[in-house]
């Protein structure tokens, strides 16, 4: 089985995000960018499937600016076999919308015919949580979102999903789209020999035009603002005072 | 923090940082306080192939140069660790790689690459002959198919966590050679075959918890195949290793320097006194800005030394200057950082005092600043020899 893993280059999770002075977006100039952490979990899961003999080949795909190459090299250094970069933007500030990404991924999947797509449940930059679901709809494939456990069986996958209030176990027919959640695994860090090997692994570069997909935006961002600063709290002298304030001032009990 | 370092190795740095992040400040603090060896950290670095960076691919390494090896050292120190626990492996490797026989390389390199064997120790310095290396008194006398070693060494590090040691000894008496640099030879000693069998080890407790020792040789027998390269040419071989050592230590100081500046600027921005962050005062800003400029400048010399070493060009001057400049820059950064933290800098939980002690070492070891200045004055500027 071939596994396809889409990976996104996003602002690093350790970076303190700052809004641009003109409120048009987030400041990405000279900011550390990394692979979306949920996508890292997806890559790790694909590698584990390969190590367990359940997958033969892992193809990583990224859609975005040229520098997303680095993100793909990271996936290759972790253990993906080859990579496809679809250069869809020149400016790091351009975010390709989920529907366009899903259409491009569908086109790649039509060519590659993977048996499983493992993707992050959402990207930590815009938190859309939409691409995997849209892709499943476009392909007409089964989908299992928010996976915290994945077992591949004969022609199907048993997926434990993290849902509100607990865990839900479902069985989906393959081929399937599985979007992964935080607790599925802990991704490995790349070793030096694997980083060196990754430099020699194949990385194809394409454009949206190669797949006949229009990536022009359908949404307009009106304004991006920082959340209001948290106001200072008050100290209460006793439990009785706390209860009194919760009851009469906050009105929550 | 932005630096002027070339970004060609960012992929290596990022992977290293991810590994180092698994060993947070508390881990290094605990080993610093207990004077114990950070075994798990060194094992993780070995398992991920970092300490085999310079070993050729055919022997299981990654076949990279001193530039990349120095980045490994820099990132360890920059993450709050102390590369002194493992840098020996990198520069000793160069000696074995450049001057060892094919047989020696085949025998040792693959095992060093996997971590089965560690080559962390080098025995050159003696109690009565520090930098005056050619006067060293340890002798190795050939008897049949063996060399018999007698003498004493001091400040020999990481013996307790190494399997192999490079030993420099005199094989032809000083009185019988034309030049004093002739007649010295290097040997690759298997420590389990030596300790208690003619070689004794006495640890030296010290200020920075660095694992270092005195060694005593009393008729230690070494098989003749432990000789590296040709007999009598050891001094030249060791010089290569020393240039690598100095360049790697420069990189460690650079890592320390950035660590201090990162730590100090973060603190200065958040610590409020008189209703505003202390970093708003130029009295706090300027020492840190100056220290940053110093680290950045030293870093350029470090990369130049690496470039020359990797291109097999002369690099003695650059390696020494890089070590001197970087050690001074990291010390200035350390001082500025400690001053910024004020009293808190002396509390162990902020790690500043530990790194402060550790980085101070590098103006003394592996060669003191004065001797670098003498070297530059005599060999680069052509002034009369001062000693």
TrEMBL record, chain A:
This is Electron transfer flavoprotein subunit beta. SMART domains: ETF. Residues 23-215 form the Electron transfer flavoprotein alpha/beta-subunit N-terminal domain. It comes from the Bacteria. One of its GO terms (biological process) is carboxylic acid catabolic process. SUPFAM superfamilies: Adenine nucleotide alpha hydrolases-like. Heterodimer of an alpha and a beta subunit. The electron transfer flavoprotein serves as a specific electron acceptor for other dehydrogenases. It transfers the electrons to the main respiratory chain via ETF-ubiquinone oxidoreductase (ETF dehydrogenase). Its cofactor is AMP. InterPro entries: ET-Flavoprotein_bsu_CS, ETF_a/b_N, ETF_b, ETF_beta_N, Rossmann-like_a/b/a_fold. Transmembrane segments: none annotated. GO terms for molecular function: electron transfer activity.
UniProtKB/TrEMBL annotation, chain B:
It comes from the Bacteria. InterPro entries: Acyl-CoA_DH_CS (IPR006089), Acyl-CoA_Oxase/DH_mid-dom (IPR006091), Acyl-CoA_Oxase/DH_mid-dom_sf (IPR046373), AcylCo_DH-like_C (IPR036250), AcylCo_DH/oxidase_C (IPR009075), AcylCoA_DH/ox_N (IPR013786), AcylCoA_DH/ox_N_sf (IPR037069), AcylCoA_DH/oxidase_NM_dom_sf (IPR009100). Keywords: FAD, Flavoprotein, Oxidoreductase. The keyword Coiled coil does not apply. Its cofactor is FAD. Residues 232-379 form the Acyl-CoA dehydrogenase/oxidase C-terminal domain. The keyword Flavoprotein applies. Residues 121-219 form the Acyl-CoA oxidase/dehydrogenase middle domain. Residues 7-116 form the Acyl-CoA dehydrogenase/oxidase N-terminal domain. GO terms for molecular function: acyl-CoA dehydrogenase activity; flavin adenine dinucleotide binding. Belongs to the acyl-CoA dehydrogenase family. This is Acyl-CoA/acyl-ACP dehydrogenase. It comes from Thermohalobaculum xanthum. The lineage of its organism: Bacteria, Pseudomonadati, Pseudomonadota, Alphaproteobacteria, Rhodobacterales.
């Amino acid at each position: 089985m071939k596994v396809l893993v889409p990976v996104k280059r996003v602002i690093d999770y350790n970076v303190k995000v700052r809004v641009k002075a003109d409120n048009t977006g987030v400041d990405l100039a000279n900011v550390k960018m990394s692979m979306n952490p949920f996508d890292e979990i997806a890559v790790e899961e694909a590698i584990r499937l390969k190590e367990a003999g359940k997958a033969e080949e892992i193809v990583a795909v990224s859609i975005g600016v040229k520098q997303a190459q680095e993100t793909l090299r990271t996936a290759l250094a972790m253990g993906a076999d080859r990579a496809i970069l679809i250069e869809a933007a020149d400016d790091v500030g351009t975010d390709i919308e989920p529907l366009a990404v899903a259409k491009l991924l569908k086109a790649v999947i039509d060519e590659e015919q993977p048996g499983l797509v493992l993707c992050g449940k959402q990207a930590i930059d815009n938190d859309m949580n939409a691409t995997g679901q849209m892709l499943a709809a476009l392909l007409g494939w089964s989908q299992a979102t928010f996976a915290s456990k994945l077992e591949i069986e004969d022609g199907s996958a048993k997926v434990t999903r993290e849902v509100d209030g607990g865990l839900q176990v479902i069985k989906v027919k393959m081929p399937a789209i599985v979007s992964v959640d935080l607790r599925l695994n802990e991704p490995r860090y790349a070793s030096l020999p694997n980083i060196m090997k990754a430099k020699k692994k194949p990385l194809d570069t394409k454009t949206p035009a190669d797949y006949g997909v229009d990536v022009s935006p359908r949404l307009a961002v009106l304004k991006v603002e920082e959340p209001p600063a948290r106001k200072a709290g008050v100290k209460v002298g006793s439990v009785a005072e706390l209860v009194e304030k919760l009851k009469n001032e906050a009105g929550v009990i | 923090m932005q630096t002027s370092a070339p970004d060609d190795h960012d992929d290596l740095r990022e992977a290293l940082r991810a590994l180092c992040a698994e060993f947070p400040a508390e881990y290094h603090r605990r080993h610093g306080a207990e004077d114990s060896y950070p075994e798990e950290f060194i094992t993780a670095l070995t398992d991920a192939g970092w300490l085999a960076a310079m070993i050729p691919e055919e022997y299981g390494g990654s076949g990279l140069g001193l530039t990349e090896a120095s980045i490994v050292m820099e990132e360890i120190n920059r993450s709050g660790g102390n590369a002194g626990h493992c840098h020996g492996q990198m520069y000793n490797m160069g000696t074995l790689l450049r001057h060892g026989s094919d047989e020696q390389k085949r025998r040792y390199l693959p095992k060093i690459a996997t971590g089965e064997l560690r080559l962390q120790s080098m025995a050159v310095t003696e109690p009565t002959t520090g930098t005056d290396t050619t006067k060293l008194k340890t002798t190795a006398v050939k008897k049949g198919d063996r060399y018999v070693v007698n003498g004493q060494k001091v400040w020999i590090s990481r013996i307790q966590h190494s399997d192999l040691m490079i030993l420099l000894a005199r094989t032809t008496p000083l009185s019988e050679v034309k030049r004093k640099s002739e007649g010295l030879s290097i040997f690759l000693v298997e420590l389990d075959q030596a300790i208690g069998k003619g070689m004794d080890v006495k640890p030296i407790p010290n200020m920075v918890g660095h694992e270092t020792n005195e060694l005593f040789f009393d008729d230690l027998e070494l098989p003749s195949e432990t000789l590296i390269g040709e007999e009598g040419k050891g001094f030249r071989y060791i010089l290569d290793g020393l240039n690598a050592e100095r360049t790697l230590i420069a990189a460690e100081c650079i890592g320390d320097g950035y660590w201090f500046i990162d730590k100090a600027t973060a603190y200065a921005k958040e610590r409020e006194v008189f209703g505003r962050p202390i970093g708003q005062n130029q009295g706090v800003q300027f020492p840190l800005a100056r220290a940053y400029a110093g680290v950045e400048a030293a870093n350029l010399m470090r990369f130049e030394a690496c470039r020359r070493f990797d291109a097999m060009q002369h690099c003695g001057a650059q390696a020494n200057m890089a070590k001197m400049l970087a050690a001074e820059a990291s010390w200035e950064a350390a001082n500025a950082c400690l001053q910024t933290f004020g009293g808190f800098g002396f509390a162990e939980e902020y790690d500043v005092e530990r790194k402060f002690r550790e980085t101070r070492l590098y103006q003394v070891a592996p060669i003191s600043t004065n001797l670098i200045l003498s070297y530059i004055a005599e060999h680069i500027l052509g002034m009369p020899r001062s000693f």
